[in-house]
Design goal:
Strand content: 5-15%
Radius of gyration: 31 Å
Oligomer: single chain
Number of strands: 13
Strand order of the largest sheet: 6-7-5-8-9-10-11
C-alpha cells in the first residue's frame, strides 16, 4: 500500500516572521550563488582572452582549477548553511539543491583545468563521465540518507503524466536549440556524437539535482514560482561548469531561464526525469554547435563571437517563452494528452531540421591534426647552385621526393582506413582528419615525430566586412618612406624595385586597388586562396592590402613601387593553422595554377624573390617553436628571402615566440614610431631558444597605406614595419641582381647599414633584443651594396 503524502507543517506562533525571513534569506543566498559563479566564470574567461590577445597562449590549466575552486567555495558555504537552517523547510530544500549544484559546478569546471581547449573530444568525454558520476553519487547519497519517497505526493494521474511530461521537456529543450541550429555549425562527426552524449549526461545530472526541488506542501503556483527560482539558480551553477572556455558563458544564457519550465515539469510529472530531457536538449546547442576555440576575441567580435552571443540571447528569449507557456499550463495542472505532447515534440524536431538545412550550415567541420614526420629533407649544398631557377627547382624536387617516399606507407594506411588527409612537402607532414582516436593511433606510428592541432574554423552566417580606407592617396612620399631613405633611393639612385617579385601571405589583397593593380604579376599562378578559393585577388580583412601597399604600392605609400607581387590568403578570419600557413608558404616556393596539386604542379621557376610575412602562428592555432622551421629552412635554401614580424606582445621581454619570427633564417622586424622610438607593442627578445631578436626595426606606428575599396588608412603594428624591410630587400636586389638569392650577404647589408633607434632602458637580455642592430636604412643599404661590386 503506497505511503500517504506527508502532512504540511502546522503553523506555529513564530510563523508570522518565519515566512518573510525565509523568503528574504533564500533570495539573498540564491542571488549570491548565481552572482559568484557567473562572475567567476566571466573573470577567468576574460583573463584567458587577455592572455590570448597579448601572447597568443591558452590560460594555464591551474588558472581554471583555481577559478573554479575559489568561486565554488564562495558559493557553497552560504548554500550549505542555508540547508542547515532549522524549522525553515523551504529554505533548507533550496539550500540542499544549491549545495549539490555548486558541487557539480566545481567538479565539472575542473575538467577544463586538465584538458586543453583544443582537445574538445577528450573534454566532452570527461565532461560526460564526471556528470554521470555526480548523478550516481547524489542518488547514492539519497538512498543512504533515507528511503526515497515521493516528496511531491504524486497521485496515480501524475504518474501517468510522466511520458507526456518527458515529451514536453524534450520539446522545450529542442525549441531553445533552434537558434543554434540557425547560426552555429557542427564540429566533426565524432565530436558531435560526444557533444550530444555530454549534454545527455548534464541533463541526467540536472534531473538528479532538481529531484529534491521543494517540499510537497503548497499550491501548484507556489511550487512552480518558488521552485522556478530555486531551479534557475541551480541551473546557473550547472551551466557555469558546462562547456570549455567561453561556451560556458553561452550556457549561462541558455539554461537558467528554463528554471520555471523545469519546476512546472517537475510538478506535473511528480519526478524530475522530464527536467533531464529539457536540460539535455538545451545544453546540446552550445556544446555541439559552438567551437570553444572560436569564442576567442582574437577573431574579432564581428566573427564567431558575435554569432555565438546572438544565438545565446535568442535561446534566452525562446527559453522565457517556454517558461511562460509551461508555467501557465502545467502550473495549473493542465497536462496535454499523450498524442498532443508527442506531436509538439515532433513539430519542434521537424522545425529544427528545417532550420538547420535551410538557414543553417549543414555538414561537419571538425578540427584536423598536423602530423610531422621524423625525416625532413636534406637541403645541404643547394646554396652553391649559381643559377636561381636551377636552385629553386632543385629545392622543390628534393622536398617533394622526400615527402613522397617517406609518407607513402602512412598515406596507404590512411586511405585503407578511409581517413582524409592532405600531404605537405615544405614541412614533411600531413594534415589528417580525426580526433582523439586517430591521434592515439598516429602516435604509435614509427615515422611520426609529433602531432599538432590544426584547427579548422566552422562557417558563420556572415563574414565581417573588410576594413575600408577613408583617406585619399598622399601627394608626396610619406614620412615613413623618407625616414628609411626609400624616396632617396628612387630619386638619387634611380632604383624602384623593378624586376623583383614580392610574395605576400596574409588576409588577401584588393587586386583592384590603384596602388596595387598595375603591379600584380598576373598569369594563372600568381594568386592562391585556400580558404574561399577565389580566382582573382580579394582581401577578406584589409590587413593584407595595407601591408603589401607598404612594401610595393604606388601612390607614395610603398618602399619599392617598381616591384611586382603575387599573393596568397593564409588568414581569412584571423585564426589560422599550421596547414593554412603552410599552404601559402608552399605556393611561394613553387606557384601552381588554380586547382593544381602543390606536389605535382608546382612551378618553382616562378617563385617570388622576397616574402613579407606579417603574421605569426600561435599556440592557439596549433603551432609550437619547431612546427614551421623546416619550411623557412626550405625557402632559404631556395634563395628566397623571408621577412617576418616580431609580434605585438611588448613591452614584455621574451615575446618573440610565434613562428616564423624566432627562426634564425627569418629576418625579424620590430616597430618604431616617427621619432625612432621603439613602440610599446613591439615584441622583445630573446627568443625561447636564446636567440637575439628582432634583427632590425622599421616604422610601424600610424603608417598610411592602401586599404580595400581604393582608399587609404592608418594602421600600427610590427605587421606594418615588416613590409618596409621586404621593400628594402626588393630595392637591394633590383639595384644589384648579383645579390638575388644571396641571403647571408643581404642580411649583413641590412644589419650593418641600419641606423640608430631609441630604446627604453629595459633589461631584456641585451639592447639588441629590443631593436636589433637598429633602424633599417634603404639608402645606405643600396648604396653600400652597389659600392661593393
Amino acid at each position: 500500500m503506497p505511503e500517504p503524502p506527508p502532512e504540511p507543517p502546522r503553523p506555529g506562533p513564530a510563523d508570522g516572521w518565519r515566512r518573510p525571513v525565509t523568503i528574504l534569506l533564500t533570495v539573498l543566498v540564491g542571488l549570491w550563488v548565481a552572482g559568484v559563479l557567473t562572475t567567476g566564470q566571466a573573470a577567468v574567461w576574460g583573463a584567458e582572452q587577455l592572455r590570448a590577445m597579448l601572447v597568443g597562449r591558452e590560460l594555464p590549466g591551474w588558472a581554471w582549477l583555481l577559478g573554479s575552486a575559489l568561486s565554488g567555495l564562495l558559493a557553497v558555504v552560504p548554500a550549505l548553511l542555508l540547508a542547515l537552517v532549522p524549522r525553515l523547510p523551504t529554505a533548507r530544500a533550496a539550500g540542499r539543491v544549491w549545495t549539490r549544484a555548486v558541487v557539480a559546478a566545481v567538479a565539472l569546471g575542473a575538467v577544463r583545468g586538465v584538458v586543453d581547449v583544443s582537445r574538445h573530444e577528450l573534454y566532452l568525454v570527461l565532461l560526460a563521465l564526471v556528470a554521470v558520476a555526480l548523478a550516481v553519487l547524489f542518488r547514492a547519497v539519497d538512498r543512504w540518507v533515507a528511503t526515497r519517497r515521493d516528496r511531491w505526493g504524486a497521485t496515480r494521474r501524475d504518474r501517468r503524466a510522466d511520458g507526456r511530461a518527458d515529451a514536453l521537456g524534450l520539446a522545450g529543450g529542442l525549441a531553445v536549440t533552434l537558434p543554434w541550429l540557425a547560426m552555429g555549425a557542427l564540429g566533426g562527426a565524432g565530436e558531435t556524437v560526444l557533444a550530444v552524449a555530454a549534454a545527455a549526461a548534464v541533463g541526467l545530472l540536472a534531473a538528479t539535482v532538481l529531484d529534491d526541488l521543494l517540499p510537497a506542501h503548497g499550491s501548484a503556483w507556489v511550487r512552480v514560482g518558488v521552485g522556478g527560482l530555486v531551479a534557475a539558480v541551480a541551473l546557473t551553477a550547472i551551466a557555469a561548469g558546462t562547456g570549455a572556455s567561453g561556451v560556458a558563458l553561452a550556457e549561462l544564457l541558455v539554461l537558467p531561464p528554463l528554471g520555471f519550465a523545469a519546476a512546472a515539469l517537475r510538478a506535473a510529472a511528480g519526478r524530475a526525469r522530464p527536467v533531464g530531457w529539457l536540460v539535455a536538449a538545451a545544453t546540446a546547442g552550445p556544446l555541439a554547435l559552438a567551437d570553444p576555440q572560436e569564442t576567442a576575441l582574437v577573431l574579432g567580435f564581428d566573427d564567431a563571437p558575435r554569432w555565438i552571443l546572438t544565438a545565446a540571447v535568442a535561446s534566452l528569449a525562446v527559453g522565457l517563452l517556454v517558461d511562460l507557456g509551461y508555467a501557465l499550463s502545467l502550473g495549473r495542472g493542465v497536462v496535454p494528452r499523450r498524442w498532443l505532447a508527442a506531436a509538439l515534440a515532433g513539430v519542434v524536431t521537424i522545425a529544427g531540421v528545417a532550420v538547420y538545412t535551410g538557414a543553417g550550415r549543414p555538414g561537419t567541420y571538425g578540427d584536423r591534426l598536423f602530423v610531422v614526420l621524423k625525416r625532413q629533407a636534406d637541403l645541404s649544398g643547394l646554396d652553391a647552385i649559381g643559377n636561381r631557377d636551377a636552385r629553386v627547382r632543385g629545392t622543390y624536387r628534393r622536398l617533394v621526393d622526400t615527402a613522397n617516399s617517406t609518407q607513402a606507407p602512412l598515406r596507404r594506411e590512411l586511405r585503407r582506413l578511409h581517413i582524409g588527409y592532405t600531404p605537405y612537402y615544405l614541412v614533411n607532414a600531413l594534415e589528417v582528419d580525426g580526433g582523439e582516436v586517430v591521434r592515439t593511433w598516429l602516435s604509435t606510428r614509427p615515422e611520426v615525430e609529433q602531432i599538432l592541432d590544426s584547427p579548422r574554423l566552422r562557417p558563420i552566417p556572415e563574414l565581417a566586412p573588410p576594413m575600408r580606407g577613408n583617406q585619399p592617396a598622399p601627394p608626396v612620399p610619406q614620412w615613413n618612406l623618407s625616414m628609411i631613405g626609400a624616396d632617396r633611393v628612387w630619386r638619387e639612385l634611380g632604383v624602384t624595385g623593378a624586376g623583383i617579385v614580392v610574395g605576400t601571405s596574409d588576409s588577401g589583397v584588393d587586386g583592384a586597388h590603384p596602388a596595387l593593380a598595375g603591379r600584380f604579376r598576373g598569369g594563372d599562378d600568381s594568386w592562391y586562396d585556400p580558404w574561399s578559393h577565389s580566382r582573382v585577388p580579394v582581401d577578406h580583412g584589409g590587413h593584407g592590402t595595407h601591408t603589401l601597399g607598404t612594401a610595393i604600392g604606388g601612390g607614395n605609400v610603398g618602399v619599392a613601387p617598381g616591384a611586382s607581387w603575387v599573393g596568397c590568403v593564409n588568414l581569412q578570419r584571423n585564426l589560422g593553422s599550421p596547414g593554412r600557413y603552410l599552404d601559402c608558404l608552399q605556393f611561394m616556393l613553387a606557384p601552381f595554377p588554380y586547382g593544381g596539386d602543390p606536389l605535382r604542379d608546382g612551378r618553382p621557376e616562378r617563385a617570388p624573390h622576397v616574402l613579407t610575412n606579417s603574421w605569426g602562428c600561435t599556440q592557439l592555432e596549433g603551432c609550437d617553436l619547431r612546427s614551421l622551421r623546416p619550411a623557412i629552412n626550405g625557402l632559404t635554401a631556395a634563395g628566397i628571402f623571408v621577412v617576418g614580424a616580431a609580434g605585438n606582445s611588448g613591452p614584455a621581454c621574451r615575446t618573440v615566440v610565434d613562428p616564423p619570427a624566432p627562426y634564425p633564417e627569418t629576418l625579424t622586424v620590430g616597430a618604431v614610431d616617427r621619432h625612432d622610438r621603439l613602440a610599446d607593442f613591439s615584441s622583445r627578445g630573446p627568443t625561447p631558444d636564446g636567440r637575439t631578436k628582432p634583427d632590425v626595426v622599421a616604422p610601424g606606428v600610424d603608417i598610411l597605406s592602401a586599404l580595400p575599396g581604393g582608399g587609404y588608412g592608418v594602421e600600427s603594428g610590427t605587421s606594418m614595419a615588416t613590409p618596409h624591410v621586404a621593400g628594402v630587400v626588393a630595392l637591394l636586389w633590383s639595384a644589384d641582381p648579383r645579390l638575388i638569392g644571396d641571403i647571408p650577404r643581404t642580411r649583413e647589408l641590412l644589419r650593418t647599414t641600419a641606423g640608430p633607434a631609441s630604446a627604453p632602458a629595459e633589461n631584456c637580455g641585451d639592447r639588441a633584443d629590443l631593436i636589433g642592430t637598429g633602424l633599417v636604412d634603404a639608402f645606405r643599404a643600396v648604396e653600400t651594396g652597389r659600392g661593393a661590386r
